[in-house]
Automatic annotation (TrEMBL):
Gene3D superfamilies reported in the protein's UniProt record: 3.30.300.20
NCBIfam families in alphabetical order: osmo_induc_OsmC
Protein name listed in UniProt: OsmC family peroxiredoxin
Superkingdom of this protein's organism: Bacteria
Pfam families in the record: OsmC
InterPro entries registered for this protein in UniProt: KH_dom-like_a/b, OsmC/Ohr_fam, OsmC/Ohrsf, OsmC_Ohr_Peroxiredoxin, Peroxiredoxin_OsmC
Amino acid sequence: MATTRSARTVWSGDLATGSGQTTFETSGIGTYDVTWKARTEESEGKTSPEELIAAAHASCYSMALSNILKQAGFTAERLETSAEVDFDTSDGAQISEIRLALEASVPGIDEETFQKSAQAAKEGCPVSKALASVPSITLKATLAA
């Protein structure tokens, strides 16, 4: 069974000087301003497609890892995942790299099992799969002592 989520963006003007607003329709959590300048320079309180992708990737990865850990008999006390998404305009506009960073507290797990689980989540998370055309997706996974 498929579940559908939706968002909508309304844009006015040209790329360089125009602006838009992206609304999270399904959740109703808000409407956020977007501009080209916020995408390629300082955000100045506005968001970008890359920030939205970073949020989606960090949350999807955390969910995927929590499931993998559960299947292996572990329950995460805390998974803190950040995602940095690079938007490169030097050779045409593209997302050139995504860096995932994880700090985790998982009682009873050994380092090898943790690293294998962390990597499996990176490969298996649906957002990672959707972003497979990104040239580089890296993961730095740290297990708290």
